[in-house]
Request: fold
Amino acid sequence: MPKKSLEFGLYPWFPGYGYAHIHPANRREFEALEPHNKVFEKFDEINGWLLLRYGDEEFKVRPELFTNVEPLPFTFGEWVKPASQPNGPVAEITDIYWSPPEDAAYFALRQGKRKLDGVYRQDQLRPA
Reply:
């Protein structure tokens, strides 16, 4: 099981903010990720850069745009199952999205190589 992150947060960057917020080595990948409304794991801070993780990717960003969100019970790569199917198939968390109107995280899942349709609230999932 992956190590739990101590902090989760949002990094609502758009290209219009300029590229000074993103480390030069990460600019192309970060822009392609379209980070708005995605939940990142903050796992370190070095020389004025935050180190964020989204899925299997890691990024260095300036701290000014980072906003913490509540701790989450699950993170990337963890195995879960739908709460409505305790004996159902397990799935891996691949993406974590943030819903500002609900102030809540939603989790996208995959079984094997197949992404499951829709997203799930944390109360709809259980550890596998």
